[in-house]
Amino acid sequence: MAAERDHLAASRSALTRMRERTAALDSSAAGDWVSRMYLESAIFARMKALADDPTVPLFFGRLDYDPGHADALGERFYIGRRHVSDEAGEPMVVDWRARISLAFYRASKAEPMGVVLRRRFGFQHGEMTAYEDEALLEGVVEDHSEILESEIERPRVGPMRDIVATIQPEQDVIVRSDLDQSVCVQGAPGTGKTAVGLHRAAFLLYSHRDQLSRQGVLVVGPNASFLRYIGDVLPALGEIDAQQTTIEGLVGATLTRLNAKYAVRGADEPPVATLKGDARLAEVLHRALWSRVQPPTEGLLVPRGSRRWRLAPYEVEEVLAALRARGVRYGAARGMLAQRLAHGILVKMEDSGDSPDDRVQDAVARSREVKRYVDQLWPPVDPARLVLRLLGDPDALAAAAEGVLTAEEQALLLWDRPFKAPTSARWSLADAVLIDEVADLVERTPSLGHVVADEAQDLSPMMLRAVGRRCSTGSTTVLGDLAQATTPWASRSWEDALRHLGKPDAHIEQLTKGFRVPGEVIEYAARLLPTIAPGLEPPTSVRRTRGELEVVRVEDDELLDRLAALVGTAVDRVGSVGLITPDVLLPRVVDALTRAGTGHAVLGDESADAAPVEFQVQLDVVPASLAKGLEFDHVVLLEPAALVAGEADHVTGLRRLYVCLTRAVTSLAVLHTEDLPPELGSP
Ligand SMILES: Nc1ncnc2c1ncn2[C@@H]1O[C@H](COP(=O)(O)OP(=O)(O)OP(=O)(O)O)[C@@H](O)[C@H]1O
Asked: ipTM of this predicted complex?
């Protein structure tokens, strides 16, 4: 232990020296201003990457390789969150993502991967307190690791943490799958899907640093509170370049790019939103856009000097057909049309004995006549205006939707009162997704290198297409649980979802070991599975504790007092507390807590969400609609019946209930006055 502590201290000093060396770099050595700025920002980024957080141990594992091992002859490696080398450049700690670290996660009795010894270190408050050894070549592999167990059992406080020290083999396979592979992970609550997705992003950023820092990596999550909850994981792993956003953020940015005044301000009724999310809308939009290209009614006439040159309608028709056949975007083809027409005129000139050069073609292409003609035949399109017209004009919609949508469906899509301009329209999220689709038909959406889509079961086919566009030439990690689908437009199968994403060949992996929810609680929640997701396997728990489950029925007039009492007991314990309430009851709950003087933050309330960690209170009041993806040591869940009734239909209500029942790490108390949904059975 003393030797290992020494190595830890020496690694820490080595890291300090690495930082000092970086700080001493002199940017004035750069030849010009641009190089100096570039160098300064590189030094700044490197300093940030070398920052040392004394509460986070520099390494958590050690591998001793067999003297006969080809890659690492008898070498010893310490595995940590980042690479540290001594002054001679010898590694003191290797990054967990390096190839040589693979065996730490994967080596087994059956396949020791040349590892003689695997050692795991235990830490408390940054101090090394324990280690565990496995002698793999001798076939000594521990079934049970105290260090892993204490990591899994630790109380959850504050935002989500990384799991680099304890990534499990089946998770590691997903984390380290190659950049060109798209992967879809189906897993029950708490099986580590989010953790795995974030670690995969970190792994890819490490192994394809150049490519991905150019192309970008994006994480799409369900809402802003969730993004704040997971927001520290990648930076803690040294990755600050990945963007994190929601689907609203993604398509909202498209709206703003088109016009700063376009914004999502409205909402649709569920049946309307569901229809707007249907993949058939893609066909309707495609038709609506391309119907804007008009066949010429008259030819093109271009005066030049004393002569006038003419392209006949049939000749223009040929140019249009050739452009359509090229399969390029609407906007790109429009850009080419002027040149093609000018070329046609040029050929005419040549035929009549002239010898015009390229400059003449350019001049013709830029002439007023050609511009006006192009605008008529192939008009510029504002994607928002096009959608405005479809949703406001029955004839326009009928023309584009004929044979694709029924008359009833078309009627459902139309606004009751059409908006006059896209700036004043009350666009809904689903509308913004449609506009995003058209924007891509007009001009290709740039693809990022990799996109992680979390809680992807909740995305509509059109939303999946929007995400898919962002990784059309890259790859994706799709994470979700069909049993936790709570939107009316949610996916029913991963095959369908992947098709809409444009990644039909993605691997579908399943995670089944639950790291969050203890046995007693997960079994209670799993009673809902036969109704909400009949095909899915029931989740299991690897937690040592069975957990605590309490279901309490009270009279109406006692509800708030009992609630205050339950919450009071929970906040006296170690760990975070989440009070999950049906959205409709939120004001009453907040009021009761305020009157009782119980400190709390309300999730979804911007100011509370934004509070720095040290000011965050232990108790979060969570509207059921925002509970997805979060976890708390102690959960108090209020009035399941109202929670179920708050959703569009009973099954969706039960799925929401399933989400809320599976947030607890230690204890779950269910408090109700109304009958529980019969699917839960008796306590
Ligand atoms: N290998 C692991 N070692 C330690 N903790 C883990 C491991 N895998 C997951 N966890 C922990 O389990 C908890 C649940 O993980 P996560 O939130 O990623 O699950 P999820 O599958 O996304 O859940 P949900 O479906 O409810 O969103 C987290 O606290 C996470 O840190």
From this structure: 0.99
